[in-house]
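SAMPLE LOG
Freezer: B-3
Tube label: C17
Construct: single chain, 117 aa
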Amino acid sequence: MSDPVISTDPKQAGNANLIYILYLVASVVGVTAIVGVVMAYMAKDDAPDWLRSHYHNQINIFWKGLLYMAVGAVLSIVLIGFLIILAAFIWYIIRIVKGMQTLAKGEPYPNPSGWGF
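STRUCTURE (predicted):
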């Protein structure tokens, strides 16, 4: 048996890639993450299944990253929060880079609902 060929629309893949880039820029300028998540919500319904997994991943990166950072901020009072914020930042970057790599290959994001990497 052969693997199914996934046809990719460069414009749609370009939008998903732009969202990943906006998320990377959000490491410095936080407002771009809000723009990115709005774009992901707008594009996910019209996307093919393989690309929808990337939009789902991007939406999860935003909300889970926000949750991790909020927990870290609250716990920074007892100093462990700074470690949580650092771990959340590393998780955020790894998740984005992994998404960009699978998007460049034209593959769906593996387990976009997962809490790990």
